[in-house]
Input
Amino acid sequence: GENVEQHPSTLSVQEGDSAVIKCTYSDSASNYFPWYKQELGKRPQLIIDIRSNVGEKKDQRIAVTLNKTAKHFSLHITETQPEDSAVYFCAASKGGGGNKLTFGTGTQLKVEL
Amino acid sequence: DADVTQTPRNRITKTGKRIMLECSQTKGHDRMYWYRQDPGLGLRLIYYSFDVKDINKGEISDGYSVSRQAQAKFSLSLESAIPNQTALYFCATSDPGSYNEQFFGPGTRLTVL
Output
């Protein structure tokens, strides 16, 4: 089955700096890569996703890049703010019907003032 | 608002007790999932169901069972709880037309003494 590795497990940045979280996956058939954000005491929520037919996707201060050849994808957060502090999970799936997500182990991001 | 709800939100029980966690959704989604979250281990899939007559084991199904009573209801049971089942449990739903974006419930914090 699919295996998703995520690094780093913890990340501390100064407010206004950029943060990068990286994930690798094992199944070359995976084609859907979402990122979930979980604030303290809350449920995980989708913040951005990318499909394998594109290499990059941006939404305001967040972006995701995908390298299919190397089987890795990354989340980039620019101009970090205190409200970005949370646990971030990457995931991979073959997408479409009949397929489930495999999650990474999570990254605890702390944005310091 | 259409949502995913879980009951109970917190539960403390003793080793050997039978426990049922319940999940209900008003999103009209066919697919439902049970995950457990442990620090440093991310979200691991216990069971999933793609419709009322479909039940599938996830990566960590031992010691758990599920019941899909209706499209909107999916219950997780621990037949004889043990301390290493202490965790945060999430139910989630997805729509097959949405590339498996998962919508999570608020979580149930289970402690087995």
